[in-house]
Each structure stands twice: as C-alpha cells, then as structure tokens.
Specification:
Elements lengths: L1 E3 L15 E9 L3 E9 L13 H12 L8 E6 L2 E6 L5 E7 L9 E7 L4 E9 L6 E5 L13 H10 L11 H8 L7 E8 L3 H10 L6 E5 L12 H15 L4 E7 L4 H11 L4 E7 L6 E5 L2
Parallel strand pairs: 2-8, 9-10, 9-12, 10-11, 12-13
Antiparallel strand pairs: 1-5, 2-3, 3-6, 4-5, 4-7, 7-8, 13-14
Helix pairs in contact: 5-6
Length: about 300
C-alpha cells in the first residue's frame, strides 16, 4: 500500500530510546530499489578495542546473536514523496522492494524509515546504480576478505567469537584488487556472504576499519520466517547474485571468492547462465593463500 505524504511531516517525529532501526541494505537501479533492515530494542554497546579479552569479545558477539527484536510492527518507508508500508517479521526484519512509476531515481536518493507507533525514524540515502555503469564487483567475505578459516570449525569459532573486528586479519592484496576495478564512486561493490544477519554490524565495522570502498553487504537470514537455506551455500549465493544480475543486466561483474565454501562452483554456474555478465573470476586458495584468476583463462 502506498500514499502521498510530505517528507517534512516526519522531521517532526521525536526519536525515542526504546527502539533502534538498523538499515542494512539500500540499493537499486533508477526504477527499482531494495531496502532491508531490522528493528531491535535499543541497547548500548561499548566500542571494541585491540586489547579486549576473548571473554569480552565473546560476550559482545553473543549479544549480537541474541536480541530483543521488535516484531510485527508497522514500518513505513518514504522515497520520492511516496510512502510504502510493511510489517517487521517474527525476528524484527523488514524488506521493501519498490518499483518506481515516476521520474527515475538517482544516486543518493533520500529515504526515510519510521515506525508508526513508536515515533522512531531514520534518514538515509539509497545507492542507485545508473544504467550507464558497466562494471561492478561481487565478492564473498569470509576467507576472501577476512581470514576466518571456515574449513576448520574450531578456528572459525575462535575467529568469529573470540576476536573483535580490530583484531581480525585482513586478506592481503584483496582490497587493492577491488580498488583497481572500482574506478569511480558509482561503481557498485557487493559482498554476498553466508554470515548471519546478526553479524552485520561486526562485518560493517571491519570493512570500515580497513577503509574499504563504499559497498552493499548482503547477509543470510539464518532463522525465522522466510529464512535462507542454512547449509546450501551454493543455492543461497546463486539466488542472491542472480537477483543482482537481473537488477543490473548491463553490468559485467568481477567476481571474488575462495575455495572454502563453493565460490568457484557458484561463479561457474552463473557464468554458464549469464556469460555476458561475468567479466572476471578470482578465487583465493585458503591453504596457499594465492589468488588465482580462473576466468578468463
């Protein structure tokens, strides 16, 4: 349902401290925008430090995974002077996929999201990729950008829970490879990861800490209604990346991954189906740490 309403009305809504709207993705083309996020009861989390103990880090990660979500709450989004309405789900998540019927949206299109009953709102801007953009980057995160040791469950747990984002190791050389492709601020960079949505803040903080270019982070809804497949990494990533390819059919993608969780198989399957939309594929070997270009050969 949509209705017209002036943007100025929402600037009068007071911000209360009982709920927090977390905006996770906000991107699209001039005709379609996708907005995803979560609503939680607001809580204060202290900034992580390099000297933090494993116990303190573990406690913070547990608090990320165990939240007091605001479920089944009416939430509205304003873009281009129009209002779109939805409900948060059983885990507090929300998603909008909006099709534009008026003037094409442009990059940094202003949006506002607000909770009708709680008088809480946030302002942001949508990353709109123009039809003239022809190249983009899609990348995995774990063991492609950050050292996680996914193939060793014990090391994965240690890296994920015992360390904070300032203590985690960066995969050397990957950021520089991204920057060679991302020639302008309009060139899209998407991270598609199997990490659960609850870890979005930790991943976001890591990428900011290491000064990665502006990006969109797509994470897995691991439980609740309409959850993504928990163990089918191949199917999950193919579905998410295929959505990007349909949204941006003019873009040829430079794809980055590793051999720990089927990234090579994911990109190979997409290459067969969308040969004109795959420009390059790079796969990092988690044992040798070498980054190999597997396409073009």
């Amino acid at each position: 349902m949509k209705k017209l309403l002036p943007l100025t009305l929402f600037s009068l809504l007071p911000l209360l401290a009982d709920a927090d709207i977390q905006l996770q993705t906000c991107y699209g083309n001039p005709r379609t925008v996708i907005v995803e996020g979560r609503v939680l009861e607001e809580r204060t989390v202290k900034e992580s430090q390099e000297e933090d103990s494993w116990l303190k880090n573990t406690w913070k990660k547990v608090k990320l995974l165990v939240n007091d979500e605001v479920k089944n709450e009416k939430i509205s989004l304003v873009i281009g002077g129009e209002v779109y309405e939805n409900l948060t789900d059983d885990e507090g998540y929300f998603e909008f996929e909006i099709n534009n019927t008026k003037a094409p949206w442009k990059n940094h299109e202003n949006i506002e999201i607000y909770l009708d009953e709680l008088n809480v709102s946030i302002h942001a801007s949508a990353f709109i990729v123009d039809d003239s953009v022809k190249v983009g980057v899609i990348s995995d995160f774990d063991d492609t950008v950050i050292v996680s040791d996914v193939t060793s469950k014990l090391n994965l747990v240690k890296n994920t829970f015992f360390k904070n984002y300032k203590q985690r190791k960066l995969v050397i050389g990957m950021k520089e490879k991204f920057e060679k492709v991302l020639s302008t601020s309009d060139t899209p960079l998407f991270f598609v990861t199997g990490s659960p949505k609850q870890l979005y803040p930790a991943i976001h903080d890591f990428l900011n800490y290491h000064k990665f270019p502006k990006r969109t982070l797509i994470t897995k809804k691991a439980h609740g209604n309409n959850a993504d497949p928990l163990f089918d990494q191949l199917g999950y990533k193919v579905e998410k990346i295929e959505r990007l390819m349909k949204l941006f059919p003019q873009i040829a993608w430079c794809c980055f991954g590793d051999n720990g969780e089927k990234d090579k198989e994911v990109y190979s399957a997409l290459l067969k189906k969308y040969p004109k939309q795959i420009k390059e594929i790079y796969i990092r070997d988690v044992d040798s740490t070498k980054i190999e270009q597997i396409f073009p050969f």
